[in-house]
Each structure stands twice: as C-alpha cells, then as structure tokens.
Amino acid sequence: MKLTTDRFLGGGITTGVYAFAANIADQRLVPPSWVLVIARLVIGFEIFLGIWLLIRFRLRAAFLVSVVTLVAFTGYLILSYIRGSQASCGCMGGIGSDSMMMGVSRNVVLLSACGLGLRLMQVDANRLPEPRQGQKVVGASEAR
To answer: Does an H or E element contain 57, and which?
Structure first.
C-alpha cells in the first residue's frame, strides 16, 4: 500500500494523522506498513509533551525532553535539506511547511524558548528566601 499526498488530499479535505502520514510516506522514512503507526506515535508524543509542559510536573525534565525532541527534528530537517529533499516535513500541521528551512527556523525559536525556560528555572532555584531570625539554616544539599 503506497501512501501519498494525492491519495489522502486529492479526494477531499483530509487533515490530521492521515495528512501527516502522507508527508512521512513522501519522505520514505519508514516502510509503508509503518507510516500510519509512526504518524500516530509522533502526534501522540507531541500532545503528551505539550500537556506535560502545561501541567508543570517535573518541568525541568519536560524542558529537557522538549530540547532533545527539537534537536532531533531539527537535525532531520537539516539532513533532508542537505540531501535536496523537496517534500514537506508536515511540521505544524502544514502551516508554513513549504520550506524545510522555515521548519529549522521555527525549531530554533522553540529551542530558544526552552533554553530561556530552563534558565529562568535555574534563577528561581538560586533565589532561596533568607532565614528568619532564630530559624535553622538548611544547606543546599538538604533543601533539595
């Protein structure tokens, strides 16, 4: 079974996982039988990561996973560009995905935001309140 953009988009407007699967199929990243599974996994992982960032549970770990994910996606986009691929990456649901370099630029902005978030967390962690008079001073190793 061959998945192409024409198959999914030629007969009407089909969005979501099938459009993304068509982009993956056009790139020939995985065997055709795995395209839909990979598309669902990537989209599910991105939704999970977004929710993880929003609920702020273990926020530092969420930022670090976001950075690793963005670096991996950016590396893939750069390799595709170097190889001369003209296929759409399917980034951001097709918004501005005509250019691989636009995807790289967008990822650099997102990486900068993650870096800023990590830096702000570090600044907040260093800003411990001053102890009140008579209060025991807790060492940095005990505070964590």
So the answer is: none
Contact 111, 67 (CB under 8 A): yes
Rounded distance between C-alpha atoms, residue 136 and residue 8, angstroms = 66
Distance between CA 24 and CA 91 in Å, rounded? 11
Q: Which residues contact 53 (CB under 8 A, 6 or more apart)?
A: 59, 62, 63, 66
Query: Look-up: residue for tokens 């978030």?
Result: 117
Which one has a higher pLDDT value, 135 or 108? 108
Q: Does 83 or 96 have the greater pLDDT score?
A: 83
DSSP H/E element including 54: helix 35-55
pLDDT in tens, 6-55: 444 444 334 577 777 877 787 777 888 898 888 889 888 998 999 998 99
Kindly state the tokens that stand for 31: 């065997």
122 C-beta neighbours (distance < 10 Å), count: 11
For residues 24 and 39, the answer to whether their CB atoms sit within 8 Å is: yes
pTM score, whole prediction:
0.66
> How many Cβ atoms from other residues are within 10 Å of residue 94's Cβ?
15
